[in-house]
Amino acid sequence: MDNRSIAQSIAQLARMSAGDGQVCGLTAAQWSTLRFFARANRFSRTVSAFAEFHATTRGTASQTVKGLVSEGYLTRSRSDLDGRSVRFDLTDKGRSALSQDPLDALSEAIGKLAPGVRNQLASSLKRLTEEVAGSRGKPSFGSCRFCCHLACALRKSGEEQSYACDLLEQPLAANDLDDLCVNFETAPSDAAARARRNRKTS
Ligand code: SF4
């Protein structure tokens, strides 16, 4: 298969899984918005971060988010990081809609792949996302585990691991580490990332 055919297959898979009107009357853009706010960390649950992720304008993203707030799928509140910005969170209704997400069919199909194939697919898609986002001067998004700004330390009392974001100077919980972040930057290399993560606080 040539490169263009592979690109078309990826786009076709995305279209088939978009879920336009299939459940709860939600449009493809609304599904995409709910999925983003379910996976984004607390620094990234904003309209501007969603606009970057969805490769759309801030105005379009704002309209979609506004509609989901008025329909009770999202709530808005002041960001605890920056009192001027607004953060959006899923409501119970939003979480309930996602439990019927049309994307689950693709997710289940991926789960049937052999572990090696699945891991290769994940790393290839990550690389493709970084290449395409980089060529457009857009953030590629990613999670703390693979970010150069993640700092890890062993607490002095006991051996409990603690985490923080060097860039935002904010503590992180262990269950934050897989969330999507608009400020993500790929660690320069696995070795450098490991060294950074193992740095101990004094
Ligand atoms: S460590 Fe990286 S991915 Fe995690 S919050 Fe900080 S900038 Fe975002």
Can you tell me about this structure?
It is a single chain. The radius of gyration is 18 Å and the shape is globular. The protein has 2 domains: about 20-115, Arc Repressor Mutant, subunit A, CATH 1.10.10; about 145-195, no CATH class. Mean pLDDT is about 85; it is low at about 190-200. Helix content is about 45%, strand content about 10%. A 3-stranded antiparallel β-sheet has the order 3-4-5. A two-stranded antiparallel ribbon has the order 1-2. The protein has helices spanning about 5-15, 30-40, 45-55, 60-70, 90-100, 105-110, 115-135, 190-195; strands spanning about 75-80, 85-90, 150-155, 160-165, 170. It has about 200 residues and is of the alpha+beta class. Strand 3 (about 150-155) and strand 4 (about 160-165) form a beta hairpin. The structure holds iron/sulfur cluster (SF4). Iron/sulfur cluster binds near residues 143, 167 and 183.
Structural class: alpha+beta
Q: What molecules are bound to this protein? A: iron/sulfur cluster
Which consecutive residue ranges, at least 5 long each, have pLDDT under 50?
A: 191-202
Total helical elements: 8
In whole angstroms, the N-to-C terminal distance is: 54 Å
Strand content: 5-15%
Rg from C-alpha positions? 18 Å
Shape: globular
Based on the coordinates given, report the CATH architecture of the largest domain. Orthogonal Bundle
- CATH class membership of the largest domain: Mainly Alpha
Q: How would you spell out the order of helices and strands?
A: HHHHEEHHHEEEH
CATH-defined superfamily of the largest domain: Winged helix-like DNA-binding domain superfamily/Winged helix DNA-binding domain
Helix content: 40-55%
User: How can the largest sheet be summarized?
Assistant: 3 strands, antiparallel
Strand order within the widest beta sheet:
3-4-5
In total, how many domains does the architecture comprise?
2
Please name the CATH topology of the largest domain. Answer: Arc Repressor Mutant, subunit A
